[in-house]
TrEMBL record:
Full protein name: L-rhamnose catabolism isomerase
Record has Lyase as a keyword: no
Metal-binding found in the keyword field: yes
Lineage: Bacteria, Pseudomonadati, Bacteroidota, Sphingobacteriia, Sphingobacteriales
Molecular function GO labels: isomerase activity
Species assigned in the record: Mucilaginibacter defluvii
Gene coding for it: rhaI
Keyword terms of this UniProt record: Cytoplasm, Isomerase, Manganese, Metal-binding, Rhamnose metabolism
InterPro entries, per database record: L-rhamnose_isomerase, Rhamnose_isomerase, Xyl_isomerase-like_sf
Length: 424
């Protein structure tokens, strides 16, 4: 199924008068409204291929209907999201969950839908059928050199796939760690991880980057070899200029000040980008902004300020991606909600009067500084997002259009009610 522009436009026409009222009212209040809209139009967030199907928990998986059964169908689903929100123009593949064997036709399909390929992800946290050696006790940090070598070669193979598709970054998340005190020597584990990553790094093409994701626990529950931003940053520094730290919002212990981490990584030129999601307890991978939208906004405030300070383009300066898992919702609806939440936080951050904020900080005017941030956060910026989407040819109300066009029902017709997507 594809959604064409005319259909979206026709539905927009009905919603337009009320949109225009709300937009004009808000635009009146903002001096640089045009600049903000242009920035919103330029801002895209990559969709992870593994988020297009229903995830599961260790207790079970309740699959939805009409889920993508192949890489082609995953790309088509991202095409649907992009046709509705005009803010999801790329897909991030996870190999070997996705095997892009026929790169030219995969690329052609993507570009026909206005999409390109974001970072490619390697997978050394599971054993694949026919795999020679097991990752039960880790991959890049394994005590057995042969296992490390197998994991290094897998990462290099992922780079090769990515090159054929036009990706320019390898995203590495390791499950390596330990479950019990004494199980491994921390220093050795770190050192072997570094050596393995150095081999992968050496295989990166000139214009490529390697993004190192950290996570404090799960699947290992005593230690994780790349457990926090310090460990990731240490590796990234030792590896070189092409290596940087990827921040997955769910990969922090409760109440961590993520915005401060983000600010410093950005200052050091070591912020690779994000895996956006939200959580109440840990790596919950819930819809972005559903639990703590204020934190998300504070992160975006640091990003806008920090990217501007380094003269980096907001849209392309770092990597923007969602990492989510849906157990009870339609994955496409969830992703539409997540993209919206990210853009809301971004638009609010663009409203912050940075000059006034700096002045308040210099005067130690704490209440004023706090008011400036809260004022922007308390502004309902949704009409700005809708206006940006409208101008870019998307839907004023993406989720409503998804439902009124009965997209899921159509996908179920096409693909069947009992579909099991590849991946999680
Ligand atoms: C795992 O917790 C990480 O968030 C990774 O990014 C992982 O590759 C992805 O979530 C797919 O499982
Ligand atoms: Zn992640
Ligand atoms: Zn996560
Ligand atoms: Zn995660």
């Amino acid at each position: 199924m594809q959604i064409n522009k005319e259909t979206v436009q026709n539905i927009n026409n009905d919603a337009f008068p009320s949109h225009q009222r709300r937009f004009n009212y808000l635009a009146d209040e903002i001096n640089n409204v045009e600049t903000i809209i242009q920035k919103l139009i330029a801002f895209n967030i990559a969709i992870p291929s593994w988020a297009l199907g229903t995830g599961g928990t260790r207790f079970g998986r309740f699959s939805g209907g009409g889920e993508p059964r192949s890489l082609e169908e995953k790309i088509e689903d991202v095409g649907l999201i992009h046709a509705l929100n005009r803010s999801s123009n790329s897909i991030s593949l996870h190999i070997p969950w996705d095997i892009p064997d026929n790169a030219p036709s995969i690329k052609a399909l993507a570009s026909q839908l206005g999409l390109h390929f974001d970072a490619v992800n390697s997978n050394t946290f599971q054993d694949q059928p026919n795999q020679a050696l097991s990752y039960k006790f880790g991959s890049l940090h394994h005590v057995d050199k042969a296992v490390r070598q197998q994991a290094v070669e897998h990462n290099i193979e992922v780079i090769k796939y990515g090159e054929e598709l036009g990706s320019t970054a390898l995203s590495v998340w390791l499950a390596d760690g330990s479950n019990f005190p004494g199980q491994l020597n921390f220093r050795n584990a770190f050192q072997t991880t570094l050596e393995s990553l150095q081999q992968v790094y050496a295989a990166l093409p000139d214009d490529w980057k390697i993004w190192i994701e950290y996570k404090p626990y799960e699947p290992n529950f005593y230690s994780t070899t790349i457990g926090d931003w310090g460990q990731s940053y240490l590796l990234a520094n030792k590896l070189g200029a092409k290596a940087s730290t990827l921040v997955d919002l769910g990969h922090h212990l409760p109440n961590t000040n993520i915005e401060q981490i983000v600010s410093l990584l950005l200052m050091e030129g070591k912020l690779a980008g994000f895996h956006f999601n939200d959580s109440k307890y840990g790596d919950d991978d819930l819809t972005v902004g559903c639990i703590n939208p204020y934190q998300l906004y504070l992160i975006f405030n640091e990003l806008v300020e920090g990217l501007d300070a380094r003269n980096l383009n907001h849209a392309t300066g770092i990597g923007w991606m969602i990492d989510a898992s849906h157990n009870v919702k339609d994955p496409v609806e969830d992703l539409l909600q997540s993209v919206e939440a990210i853009k809301i936080a971004y638009a609010q951050a663009l409203l912050v009067d940075q000059d006034k904020l700096k002045q308040a900080q210099l005067n130690n005017d704490v209440a004023r500084a706090q008011e400036i941030l809260q004022h922007a956060y308390r502004t309902d910026v949704r009409p700005l997002l809708a206006e940006a989407r409208l101008r870019a040819g998307g839907a004023l109300q993406p989720l409503e259009v998804f439902r009124s066009l009965k997209v899921r029902e159509n996908l179920i017709q096409e693909r069947g009610l009992k579909t099991v997507t590849t991946g999680l």
